Amino acid sequence: MVSRQQSRQPLIEVRGLVNRFGEHTVHDDLDLDLFPGEILGVVGGSGTGKTVLLRSIVGLLEPSAGTVRVLGRDLLAMSTRERSHTERRLGVMFQGGALFTSLNLQENIALPMIEHAGLSRANAEHLARVKLAMVGLPTQAALNYPSELSGGMVKRAALARALALDPEVLFLDEPTAGLDPIGASAFDSLLTTLRDALGFSVFLVTHDLDTLYATCDRVAVLSEGKVLVADSLDVVEQQSDSWIREYFHGPRGRAAAKAHRQTTREEQ
Ligand SMILES: Nc1ncnc2c1ncn2[C@@H]1O[C@H](COP(=O)(O)OP(=O)(O)OP(=O)(O)O)[C@@H](O)[C@H]1O
Questions:
Q1: Is the C or the N end of the chain the one with fewer CB within 10 Å?
Q2: Pfam families in the record, alphabetically (predicted)?
């Protein structure tokens, strides 16, 4: 796996981030960077604030303090117009997909193109069919409604929607949750293939160890309100922190690492 971040300006720069809900401090002076072209995995125990961090970066949640620079600009200091322009350069795939159940797939994916890029309905639906093909869905699925699809197909459709406006950064929140191992592994391959082909960067919140090993250039571990470490898996695995040891060196972590090393050997 290629590490692409060296000596590049980060696309996303989070500095001194604080997020509080009442008495509960979720982030306390958190720093994190996302570099061009990389897939950054974000992990941590339940409730460590992975989703809150994602929401703070994409502008869905106003942090209590700190700065978030997105594509070189301070998100919180932008005018509403600039902010909405910047937010269009970010694609987000939420947990569960969040597709509109009353729209078929091509309508779901065309919607952001009509609303934000001003495309005609016909052009948007044509492009939506291209996006659906790009994520590996059969042509006829364009006219299906989300309820008519398998979990794996819904995930692919949600990915197509996140890619509708050709984002520079893609944010994924637990994209393989609920998929069987074969479906999850197919999603991992799709993600790396699309990243290699289109060159976007990925902020990937996940609990899925196989996904981490199969896709990530770097992994950031959240703990006690901060990023404990953000580095390659080889480095992260070696940290002495108890959660990291349990996560990466427990039975599931060992199995994922072993499977990854075997796949890497077979590919060489
Ligand atoms: N709008 C909100 N109001 C109050 N508390 C919130 C809000 N959003 C998140 N929280 C709290 O912030 C903490 C972090 O939530 P978050 O969903 O980011 O965790 P997470 O690391 O993504 O967890 P998981 O791995 O279980 O999905 C949780 O304790 C949650 O209850």
A1: C
A2: ABC_tran
Q: Which domain holds residue 61?
A: 1-89+169-230
Report yes or no on 244 lying in a domain. no
Q: When comparing pLDDT for 219 and 84, which is higher? A: 219
128 part of a folded domain: yes
Handedness of CA 128, 191, 99, 205 (dihedral sign): negative
Flag whether the ipTM exceeds 0.95. Answer: yes
Whether 188 and 220 share a structural domain: yes
Residue 203's SS3 state is strand
Nearest CA to ligand 1 atom 1: 21
Ligand 1 in contact with 46 (CB < 6 A)?
yes
Q: Which of 14, 17, 21 has the most ligand 1 atoms within 8 A of CB, as the residue to mutate? A: 21
From the CA of 243, how far away is ligand 1's center (Å)?
A: 18
| Domains in the chain, number | 2
pLDDT for position 1: 44
Q: Is 22 in the pocket of ligand 1 (CB under 6 A)?
A: no
pTM of the prediction? Answer: 0.92
Phi, psi of 56 (to 5 degrees): -65, -35
How many residues can be counted in the chain?
268
Same domain, 139 and 223: no
In terms of Cα–Cα distance, which of 214, 138, 199, 188 is closest to 163? 199
Whether 80 and 68 share a structural domain: yes
